[in-house]
Amino acid sequence: MKLKQFLLTVCTLIVAVIGFAKVGHAQSVSYQTYKYGTSTTSMADGYYARPATVTVSNGAYVVTMTIRTATNLSAWPVVVNSIDGQAPQNVTKTQSGGYYLYSYSFTTKDLSGVISSSISINVPGVYKANHNISFKFDTSSLPALSGSTSSTSASGANSSSATAAAGVANGSSSSTSGSNDPQLSQKLKKLESQASSQSSAAKAKESRLARSTIAQNDRVQEQSQKNQTLYYFVLVGGILGLLIVIAAAVYFVWSAKKQIPRH
């Protein structure tokens, strides 16, 4: 009777450990990187390692992302200025093999909408600029938050839209007020032409830099997913092996006690 109770206790403990490991482990979530305000893939997409990891803490999602860049682009050439209206949290800078890794997290109660971010790219002597990008996460595997709302994200989006509209209106007003001056009009056209040329050159440089890392990031991402799968197999196999050893030890002790003659 005592043996059965002991084995039942051990089995319950093992099941609890496995359940805790599954609950405590972060969820892997895929995502897309877009040019700000569009559904076109951003050239910065190649810098972002997949998947992101998401945990639930204090009634909110904590999302951890990693930017991976080749060491030949200089140390951590891509950094995050802001994401979802907040400064990046838990920023760590490490080096692994031929890559610089920039990991950070942010907290949100709504991942179903578009998450906007501002980043800085600085490759010395090659390219330097700030960019606004957007992320769309696959939330199909995430648990729902109790009492979660999207009001914060919605209000942020409305605020951003209003600010952008005001900027466009102001820009249009300035251009109109000086349109009667021929010299000013020529200067404006010249500046617009220069800005267009610089923008095209910048986009071309950004495209080359991003594409040079896409293949490398894909290989590393594939290896990371394999390692994660192996981790679960090793964990479950180790627990089952431990259970077998304990059961065998209890059985041998029990058998030995039965063979001892009673007086």
TrEMBL record:
SMART domains given in the database record: NEAT
Biased composition (Low complexity): 166-186, 193-202
Tree of life domain: Bacteria
Keyword Transport found: no
Signal peptide annotation: 1-26
Domain NEAT: 22-153
Keyword rRNA-binding: no
Keywords from the named record: Membrane, Signal, Transmembrane, Transmembrane helix
Chain spans, region Disordered: 166-221
SUPFAM superfamilies (alphabetical): NEAT domain-like
GO CC terms in record: cell envelope
Annotated TM spans: 230-254
Subcellular location: Cell envelope
Major place of residence: other
Protein name per its UniProtKB record: NEAT domain-containing protein
Organism of origin: Limosilactobacillus fermentum (strain NBRC 3956 / LMG 18251)
